[in-house]
Amino acid sequence: MTKVFNVAKVREDFPILKREVNGKTLVYLDNGATAQKPQTVIDALTKYYTHENSNIHRGVHTLSQEATSAYELTREKIQGFINAPEKESVIFTKGTTDGINLLAFSLGRDFVQEGDEIIISAMEHHSNIVPWQMLCEQKKAVLKVAPINQRGEIILEEYKKLLNPKTKLVSIVHISNTLGTINPIQEMIAMAHEVGAKFIVDAAQSAPHLKIDVQALDCDFMVFSMHKVFGPTGVGFLYGKKELLEVIPPYQGGGDMIKTVTFEKTTYNELPHKFEAGTPNIAAGIATSAAIDYMNQLDWNAVHLHEKELLDYATAQLKLIDGLRIIGEAKEKASVISFVIDGVHPYDVGVIIDKMGIAVRTGHHCTQPLMDWFKIPGTIRASFAFYNTKEEVDLLVVALKRALQMLR
Ligand code: PLP
Predict the structure, then answer these.
(1) Which residue of 52, 116, 318, 353 could cross-link 358, Cys pair, CB 3.0 to 4.6 Å?
(2) Residue nearest to atom 2 of ligand 1 (CA)
(3) pLDDT tens-digit profile of 146-191?
(4) Does the residue 2 lie in any domain?
(5) Catalytic (active site) residue 136
(6) Contacts (Cβ under 8 Å, ≥6 apart) of 157
(7) Ligand 1: which residue has its CA nearest to atom 5?
């Protein structure tokens, strides 16, 4: 039996939710941009700098060994979190953007040649467009875009038509940060594999909402950022199939990624260190363990039900507002709602409701081509986490109505 999700109790774990903004209790609905952190993550950061601060993978002294063990423990926890077959397949990065750039460089060097094709979709974040454009320019390869329908779903028949033996890579977002669409990624991966293409999943928005299983998905690579998964900024992960990570070249050269260096030749370190040059964000890497522990102690059936209820309730309430149109009405959707309102600019609405303590995102959400496709300058986006409540949805609706009275 599914336990009832105790949202009031969960909110106690996130100290920032108690603060006031402009004289009102904060209503934080910008989780798609970054999620808030539980006290345990904040404590882990402080504990590292207070008790353990030292560099990793190089010192023989106790502090360095403790920090190295804590950092490597995080790798194991991420392995479990995404069900990777081995910890060597889990690479620390700075975040999703860094992971995609790593792949564009390292996969791009030998794997993509003139005339080859790379497929993305019409709903990608700029970080999953620009690195591929740069690679295509450099290699004279061709970037293809899988189209979407009016509901904001990838049209699978059209995607299928794009796939052919020249397709080397497909890189697709799991959950759209702008539309909330949950893409049928497993099916899309299987289709790409039929033509021999490798598949990269941008899991920036799915890691905080869905149970991730890279083996069940059979993706070749996956990237995500911890700051969206209730963890610290400055750290993220790249998962790759080991046999692929072994053959692609490193991204950056420097300390830690080498086995031997002479002025004539360098040999590279084993996985995963081959892709981890230089001193990383050690504090954030270690505090990531606390975020994963936090995720693991939640009842995820209950979380999913709660987030679905929030999505359905907010969608129904928002639709009652005169002139409001939701952008992105996919059948499979996460708790992200983008909308526009007739006669008002999203930015003005965002500024006014901030005065009432409500944090939403306004603008193009780093998906300008998607905004162009919908022929809109931007949207107002409310993106919910498990600590949000129906009462906060009500406050959003009241604030929007007041803003409209002021603006119209
Ligand atoms: N991909 C998606 C779908 C996102 O939502 C984001 C961030 O909003 C990114 C990529 C980039 O993530 P980061 O800025 O953490 O590198």
Answers:
(1) 353
(2) 204
(3) 999 999 999 999 999 999 999 999 999 999 999 999 999 999 999 9
(4) no
(5) no
(6) none
(7) 177
CATH of the domain at 284: 3.40.640.10
User: Which domain-ending residue is among 296, 314, 335?
Assistant: 296
Q: Verify that 14 and 69 share a domain, yes or no.
A: no
- Residue 69 falls inside a structural domain: yes
Look over the chain and give the mean of its residue pLDDT values, rounded to a whole number.
Answer: 97
Residues whose beta carbon lies within 6 Å of some atom of ligand 1: 95-97, 125, 127-128, 173, 177, 202, 204-205, 225
Q: Is residue 38 part of a domain?
A: no
Range of the domain at 70: 43-296
Tell me which of 296, 311, 331 is where a domain ends.
Answer: 296
Alpha-helical runs (H) found in 228-362: 242-247, 282-297, 300-319, 346-354
Number of domains in the chain: 2
Among 366, 390, 394, 397, the one annotated catalytic: 366
Confidence class for position 253, pLDDT limits 50, 70, 90: very high
Which residues, 6 or more positions from 9, have their beta carbon under 8 angstroms from its beta carbon?
none
Q: What is the mean pLDDT of residues 108-131?
A: 97
Beta strands in 174-281 (DSSP E): 198-202, 221-225, 236-240, 258-261, 266-268
Residue 63 alpha carbon to ligand 1 centre in Å:
33
User: How far, in Å, from the CA of 406 to the mean position of ligand 1?
Assistant: 33
